[in-house]
Amino acid sequence: xxxxxxxxxxxxxxxxxxxxxxxxxxxxxxxxxxxxxxxxxxxxxxxxxxxxxxxxxxxxxxxxxxxxxxxxxxxxxxxxxxxxxxxxxxxxxxxxxxxxxxxxxxxxxxxxxxxxxxxxxxxxxxxxxxxxxxxxxxxxxxxxxxxxxxxxxxxxxxxxxxxxxxxxxxxxxxxxxxxxxxxxxxxxxxxxxxxxxxxxxxxxxxxxxxxxxxxxxxxxxxxxxxxxxxxxxxxxxxxxxxxxxxxxxxxxxxxxxxxxxxxxxxxxxxxxxxxxxxxxxxxxxxxxxxxxxxxx
Length: 296
Description:
Strand 1 (226-237) and strand 2 form a beta hairpin. Helix 3 (76-104) packs antiparallel against helix 6 (176-203). A 3-stranded mixed β-sheet has the order 1-2-3. It has helices spanning 3-32, 35-57, 76-104, 113-140, 143-170, 176-203, 210-221, 255-270; strands spanning 226-237, 240-249, 275-284. The protein is built from 8 helices and 3 strands, in the order H-H-H-H-H-H-H-E-E-H-E.
């Protein structure tokens, strides 16, 4: 199975899993007046929208460079994941608002064993989708699929939180239902913020973590022909890292030897995880033009 096929299969699994969860929990929740169950189904409605967006937009990240996108489509995937996160924040705020209103007014929820069955189905459904998405994403490393998988796991937690509401209805304490709905909303908002922050970093070109920067420097400086590096920068372009640096080498190299050395350095750096492109300038060692310039 190629990467594109694996990506599409994982995304379709999320789409279908959310459709089933919405239908089962939504119908049961509305029938018996459970805000906790309706909130859980509404969360899955946002998940369904996010999954559809990932399906349509995310697969474009597998397209290569073209005339209008000379550097490829790498930014589309974190943009898609950012949409997922923003959708969760908005939906979570709406659920929290509804839960607050329900607390102020006496909730009207009737217990029925079908409430338990609906929740059990929702939990099992999302666990299976989560495991399948993670399985296919082990080799892809897709942030969009990471976002969907994280949201599947979040769905499991919100469904477990909704158990409090169903339990309240069972013991004659209907006020527990909107309280459970509020708890669900807080979990939804928290997950949405986390997903959004991660992918904003990808989109604004933030530098990778220090350990990754050090690994890139070490890959260059470990070459026996390299005396030092300067003007070193690395930043995210989408989910991939773009690297630029000047390498200090002996000045007696022929043009052919310098070309081969540059190719070797590029190959070394490109072999590191997440590195998508490398730009190298060779400088004669000992010139000293970089001594007064701080390394970036």
